[in-house]
Amino acid sequence: GTTGRLVLQASAESNLKRIALECGGKSPQIIFADATNLDHVADNIMDGAYWNMGENCSCGARLIVHKSLKAAILQKLVDRIPDWKVGDPLNVHTKAGPMISQTHTQKVMGYMESAKQQATLVVGGSKTLEMSDDEATNNFIDLTIFDNVETGMDFAQEEIFGPILSILTFDTEDE
């Protein structure tokens, strides 16, 4: 976006250094109708969507799944959510820690509220775990899954950098 344009402009105005820009994206995970071993697939979806609380540029935050497999994979994902304990990152049983800051937590929760108006909340959808009375340190968000997501919805297009998985379906590979 804006930062990429500024870097590109600065490069052009200096000595035309070669640069490559990664200007954001919304990495999809795609499941075709012939997928097998859905347990293994579900484990990988969880890792792709929730590793580092979704705060990484290659977060697999969009699951595009063939409609014939959606119910089965959705159930497997919901069943795995309790295994991803959200909490103190120093606790060996914790798999998902806090957001980077209170400001970012509020931004992610804004996307969450928008998503609740547009799609179907399956699991999660709120702040969780109050570790102290200090609001600035309570930056924990439930791992969240939204279903019935359409490509035009803002949270399905923008990088959220948070623990939100959007499920979209398709019928044919051409879609």
TrEMBL record:
Keywords: Oxidoreductase. The keyword Oxidoreductase applies. GO terms for molecular function: oxidoreductase activity, acting on the aldehyde or oxo group of donors, NAD or NADP as acceptor. The keyword Hydrolase does not apply. InterPro entries: Ald_DH/histidinol_DH, Ald_DH_C, Ald_DH_CS_CYS, Ald_DH_CS_GLU, Ald_DH_N, Aldehyde_DH_dom. The active site is at E22. This is Aldehyde dehydrogenase domain-containing protein. It comes from the Eukaryota. Coiled coil: none annotated. Belongs to the aldehyde dehydrogenase family. Residues 3-175 form the Aldehyde dehydrogenase domain. SUPFAM superfamilies: ALDH-like (SSF53720). It holds the Pfam family Aldedh.
